[in-house]
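Repro:
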Amino acid sequence: MATHARPSFRGAALYNHPKQRFSFWYPSDWHILQFDDAAHQVAVTPQQDDISTSFMVEVRDLETPITRDDRSLLREGIEAGLKELTDYQLLNFEPFDEKHRFGFDFLYTFIVDHQVRKRHTVLYYRDHWQYSLSCQGATVEDYHYWLPMLNFILMTSTGATFNAVEWMAARDAQAESNR
C-alpha cells in the first residue's frame, strides 16, 4: 500500500455526531464506519472494509466528573491498557492541560497478526466525558504515508458539532467589524 507518493485530497467532508458529541473534517473519498454502541464511536478509513488504517473517535460518558487530580490514576489505567497489546512500544507520552480539557497525547507501536502497527492517540477529559481520538496505520509505513490526512482530521476534531452556517456568519460579522 505505502509508496513514495503522498496521498492527495480530492475534497473534505464534515462529520457531525448525531448527538452533538463531536465533529471533524475528513477526506471526502474516505469511508465512514459507525458502531452501534454506547461509546459514541465512529471511524473513517481510506479502505471501505478495513479499519487497520483509520482515524477513530470514541466518546464515553464516565458518569462521574474527572478532575486534574485524577491524572496519576488515569495514566496508570492507560499504561495497563497498553500492556494488554502485543509487544507494544511507547514512543512518546505527553500530558497536556488546557482551559476546558486535559489529557494525554501518546504515540506507540504494537503487533497485530505479526504486523507492527503505529497509533497516535489523544485521550482527553471534559467533566464526565472521555474523548479518545486515534490515528492508526495498518503498518508503520502506512501510518507515515497517511499521516498528512490523519493529522488534518485530528486537527479539525472538536468535542462538539460544527455548524458551518454559524461559523461563516461569525466570520463575516468579524470581517465587517474590522472595516
